[in-house]
Amino acid sequence: AWKTHYLDWEIKNATLTRDCHTVSVATVNGMFPGPIVEINEGDTLVIKVTNKQIYPVTMHWHGIRQFHTNYADGPAHITQCPIQTGGSYIYEFTVDSQRGTFFYHAHIDWLRATVHGALIVHPLKKLPSTYGKVEQEIPVIIGEWFGMPANQYEAGFLNTLEPLENATSITPTINGYPGPKYNCSKGAQVFKVEKKKTYLLRIINAALNNDYWFSVADHKLTVVGADGNYLKPFTTKYLPLLPGQTTDVLVTTNQKPGKYYFGINVGPIPIVGRPPPRIPALAMFEYEEASSSASPVTPKFPNNVTLKPLNQYVAKLHAFGDSVITLPKKLNKDLIWTIGTAWVDCKKPEPCVQKVMGMIQNISFDDPVGTSILQAYASGANGVYQTNFPDEAPSLKVNLTGTDPHYRNGTRGTRVKTLNFGDNVRIVFQNVFAAGILDHPVHLHGHDFYVIGRGYGIYNSAKDPKSFNLVDPPAYNTFGVPNGGWLAIQFIANNPGVWLLHCHFDRHKSWGMEMVFITKNGHGSAQSLAPPLHPLPKCTAGGLP
Ligand code: C2O
Ligand code: CU
Fold first, then answer.
1. How far apart are CA 191 and CA 2, in angstroms?
2. Which of 79, 267, 473, 508 is deepest in the core (most CB within 10 A)?
3. In the chain, where the domains are located
């Protein structure tokens, strides 16, 4: 039988020490990462979120479709106004026809740095037989420690043009701890394992601004799923995760009983000017049978000099089991959109200078002020957003050097793209830069999309579609648009409402690398936007009460 889980969360400050920095940061119930939420497919969550710290907050359930519960999705000023200090909001939604590894995180400013946690949905049917007998499931949450409240860091960052890569105060963490290679750490977090057993690692990249390689010393990883969808199993020594991606991995304890570190290191996109690989964040698997004096083995990570390990990994991604779908042949929207950064004038009033901004179709998205797009849409309020998100890119003859005149100057606006219910939508994202910028992890709210193609250079609409995978494309909610290349995705707009699409690097998102879809209602209430289940936080202007 399905269950309803009632949770009471306080977003409040906790004083924590990591990497020798003691800071008071926002957390869920005082924990970093927040509590693990574990439910079964079909269950309902009713989570009352009360804001007990100074920054306005909202909560997002990353990867959960929110069919008929658009008001529980959570991005600030997109589906709701933020919960102010002292206020609360109840997020209620049912997780239907989805299972796997998800997470929740604050969806405003950079609060998600410390306000996040695992959301695990156990399948209705049991795990596919390819999972074998799983002895234990272990959530592995990748995070970052800023050495100061992340919102303060953000404010400083947005006021300068300094690339974040130059910042020294960011420490990677595994389940909240950087581990033994960092100062002021009390050794590694230890997970006891038995020999000749299989463990399911549910790995979540909740970090704000870095992609990571994950690896376990001396053990092979069998990848079986990602973003809540099954993948055709394959083995690898290490796997890449962009912020917003999750991966399910099996590890069999078939090595000599001992102590084996596992963890993350910065990767896999080689960046011009990036400092040498940082120090990995590590935790440890310790075989029950290991002798206490055994010295731990450290994992290896690929060096970030070529894209080969990343491309080899991506080539192995195929949907599996009930994650394989047949995509309809007829496209209702066939779009080619550019993504990258450009210079735009900062917001008035003066004085202001030109700033680097994040762009999709050369437009930097401005959140509406004092209301949300969803509330404006549902109430028919005028003037909050425009529906003229451009279909044509300024130019697709991008030179990929970052000096293309078409992409030197962008504009800003609150422009949305309207879809009809049931539209079969294909988007090719063309990255307008070659060097010096990371892959952009594009994340779509309210849907999974299918990754049908990916390549380097300028997308060729005559040639490249011939190589698209329309047979078993892997389903994701977050996937990288390659540095100096393109990514082709497809999805069905079968979720009426307002859905954000954005780069899951927070620094790019706060630069405006985001846009919004509004999917119109179809027929009858089953295909229509449903009203909010609980009173929404107060907006300061317009919108619903
Ligand atoms: Cu995980 Cu809109 O985000
Ligand atoms: Cu980006």
1. 31
2. 79
3. 1-128, 129-319, 322-527
Ligand 1 atom closest to residue 500's alpha carbon, by position in its atom list: 2
CA separation for the pair 221, 528 (Å, rounded): 42
d(CA 516, CA 408): 23
CATH number of the structural domain 1-128: 2.60.40.420
Task: Decide if domain 129-319 falls under CATH 2.60.40.420.
Answer: yes
Say which CATH class 322-527 falls into: mainly beta
- What predicted TM-score, i.e. pTM, was given to this entire model? 0.95
Contact by Cβ (8 Å): 457, 428: no
Matching fold, domains 1-128 and 322-527: yes
- What gap in Å lies between CA 210 and CA 25, rounded to an integer? 20
DSSP string, 439-456: -EEEEETT--EEEEEEEE
Which amino acid is present at 258?
G
Nearest atom (ligand 1) to Cα of 62 = 1
Which residue puts its alpha carbon closest to atom 3 of ligand 1? 62
| Nearby residues of 3 by Cβ (< 8 Å), 6 or more positions away | 39, 40, 43, 44
Closest C-alpha to ligand 1, atom 1: 62
Which residues sit with their C-beta closer than 6 Å to ligand 1? Answer: 60, 62, 75, 105, 107, 244, 443, 445, 500, 502, 504
| Tokens read off for 459 | 């997308």
